[in-house]
User: What shape does this take?
Amino acid sequence: MPASPAKALRKTGKKKESPSPKKVSQGMRRVTGEVSQKKVGHRTESASEAGKIKFVRRTSPQGASSTPKKTPIAKSLKTLRTKLALSMDTFAQVLQVTPRTISRWEKADTVPSNPADIAHIKKLEEIVAFGLMVYSLEGLQSLFTEAQPEFGGKTGIAMLTFGEYESVMSAIAADYEGLGY
Assistant: This one.
């Protein structure tokens, strides 16, 4: 078994060079010899003297904020959830995703990319927009949080969780037309 570099230093007084590349911070590798670096836009390119290893490290532009900007979808999700007075857990059940996904969407860490998720969000936005034309905010919240006879004793949130968007929209439309149930 070869001696470690530290043992080689103690025995000979000279540091033993390792034949394999060593890992350096951020997953970069270094080989023995000089490493040159050049800045190209928002990235730094480095190459070894022998040209064997090249890595690119991306950096943010100067003055760029490290916090992500809120996207329109992130703002609308937060607005929808607060208008309906729902917790992230309940809102996640309605959209059939995890609470962590809701959190990421609201923080704009990620955006919905699944077409089904986007469709659920759009339907929910339509229901809330139409509901606010018919009811006050408190009235809309009670439609979603209190058991309703037109939903067979279920809440509006329960109906949305089961994908019954049309039933909720029909109930709001009936109240808009003055028919009510």
In short: Residues 20-62 form one domain.
